[in-house]
Design goal:
With 145 residues, the protein is α+β, with helices and mostly antiparallel strands. It has one domain (3-31, 45-80, 107-144). The chain has helices at 3-29, 59-69, 109-144; strands spanning 45-49, 75-80, 86-89, 101-104. The longest helix is centred in the C-terminal third of the chain and has 36 residues, at 109-144. The mean pLDDT is 86.
């Protein structure tokens, strides 16, 4: 594997992990939002990583396509969590229904904190990998002098 490919892999992983950090942060920020623009409480979101379908007419085209897809991390989509909303009895709340029940967001703060910490560690690991790649490239240039 060449240096540029290794940098491309780590760079794409950094971009994907940044998206994951942003989504977890958004979930935590809206953990108590009972009214959104769409109406109703905020729905937690999750990031899905993956590869897109491979298309090619010949074996070599398919192989080249698979090879390039395996050399980067992609955010396929950001999906909403389908877990039901929490219901809390609070008749004084402005969003309470006739029975005094308020639908609260389906954000699990402990789960989001773990996801945020995990994404941060993955991000840091990719920064370290990029630093190592740069150091190896510089060392190779020094040796060739």
């Amino acid at each position: 594997m060449d240096f540029l490919t290794a940098m491309k892999i780590s760079g794409s992983a950094l971009k994907a992990e940044r998206t994951r950090i942003n989504v977890a942060s958004m979930n935590l920020a809206n953990a108590n939002t009972t009214r959104t623009i769409e109406g109703g409480p905020y729905r937690a979101k999750s990031v899905i990583f993956g590869a897109k379908p491979v298309q090619g007419n010949t074996f070599q085209q398919t192989y080249d396509s698979v090879d390039s897809k395996l050399r980067k991390v992609e955010v396929v989509e950001v999906v909403e969590d389908k877990v039901p909303f929490k219901e809390v009895y609070d008749p004084a709340h402005p969003d309470a229904d006739a029975n005094g029940i308020v639908k609260m967001p389906n954000v699990n703060t402990a789960e989001q904190m773990v996801d945020l910490m995990s994404a941060r560690r993955d991000f840091d690991a990719n920064v370290t990998a990029m630093d190592s790649i740069k150091a190896i490239a510089l060392r190779s240039l020094e040796i060739s002098r």
